[in-house]
Amino acid sequence: MRSIGQRIARTLSLKVLVFVLLGFAAVAVPAFAAFNWIANSTIIQLGTLFAEKQVLYDRHRGLAALMREVALAEALAGSQAIRDWARNETDPASTRRGIAELEHYRRNFADKSYFFVIDASGNYYFNDAANSYADDQLRYAVDASNPRDTWYFATKALGEGCHLNVDNDSNLGVTKVWINCVIREGRNVLGVLGSGIDLSAFVQDVVNIPQAGVTSMFVDRQGQVQAHRDERLINLASLAQETRDMRSVFSLIDHEVERAQLAALMDEVAAGDNAVRSMFVDMEGQQTLVGVGYLDRLGWFNVTLMDVDAIIDRRLFMPIGLLLIGVMGLVAIILMMIFKQTVLNRLVGLERVVRIARNGNFGPALGFAGGAPDEVGRLGAAFAELAQAVDDNTRLLETRVDERTEELRQLAFRDGQTGVLNRRGFGAVHAEASSRGQYGLLLLDIDRFKTVNDNYGHAAGDRVVLEVARRIGKTVGRHDASARWGGDEYIVLLPDASPQTLRAVAGSVLDAICGRPVSVAEDKLLNISVSIGACMSDQGDTLEMAVEMADAALYMAKSQGRNRIIVFDRESQMKSRSA
Q: Domains, the chain, ranges and CATH?
């Protein structure tokens, strides 16, 4: 040992080498710790960012799958025919109209099925996609003493509106995500109706998307699992089940403290403080990243479980560690500078890019080259690829959100029954046309429309309303706009029209509507007529002013015998007012 020391003391190169190696070792230890911190921070930050984007994506898919059905169920619950039937179930006419209304909506539900429980009698009406129970929709009567019917009485207590529940209806032999809408009149419950979405189809479309390291599920406010790719975890009949029997997301977590933290996180998201939150928990001894979002219209949470190691492979960082070990055998000072220049500085740059990407700016990450094609360079390239994937996913999500927003905007501006503009949509068109100059306005009303509903039923009335809208749309020009103004009223805007054009178009519309009968049933044709009030409006006239003039003309057309056109004489009206 002494001879080795003497040799080192006598040999400058060995002394420098030893000192350099010792200095390198002293620098290598904190450098290695810094590298680990940067790598772990990168993994956590990318995993958290990915978790939040994944939760938003799952939230969008869950809403798209369920909101249309909820909206249809809410519309059906507000139907006057349904409410009249629930008040007087024994009246045959009310029963026919109610059944017809249910069947009309059944064809629009995705599952092509419905159920309706009338509270006064407890009678349960049901029909499915195969129309198996045509003319025999009454299936059974709910019974408070029957455990299988507990869901109904639990739903009654939830208050007015639509509520979701996963239930295995043993009476009907089906398992679905049920949309239960409570119909109230004051404090009295008239009944509960709705439809269902087949659970297996919902899971296949929404949560059963193969993605390595990612598991999606939907839970209710109590944490009960409502949709999961593993059907054994789904809490069937959750409305009727006691708390001690619940299969919940909390039961998957190892520690009670983390369960309480997740519950608080869910309350925070439900309160609207944050759209998405995430945290790390231990599940079956493995650290898992949990992302939580809230579907406010449905009362569900979408929970995404992510194995960060499966998403971001930590082995990508191993070559860097091996590089550190290999560097120790090389000339110290030069290699220390090379190490600082080629490793630490580039990792700091990578971390800076990651921090920028965490704030939603993926531009620097997409252009991050990583320098030389070594381990750090491959890490940078891998991060750039990951950032590209996250950016693509974000853009896809934004595109889908924009598409959904456009669909919702169309729904807000279109009449749901006829597909033409509604009042809001027509108001927007009028605002643009009135700013350009003079325009014409037609206000139409179907003559004696009430007798159609009274004599032939609401289904016949719906056909008349739809056919009149169609004929108006085919008659007016492509630059003109038509809308449904009320139950049996329509309005037409003729931009840049002259009085002669106004009369000509009004005559064409009258001929198109009255010229041939409307088919209201397979073997029934019905002749209809309309009264039309027309007016010319000047630039700057408000929609209310124009409608008031057209409505005055429409009133005159009605009072003079209907089935005619009256054009509002603005000059005569102004003279009479001044006189």
A: 2-47+313-407 (no CATH), 78-201 (3.30.450.20), 210-311 (3.30.450.20), 423-578 (3.30.70.270)
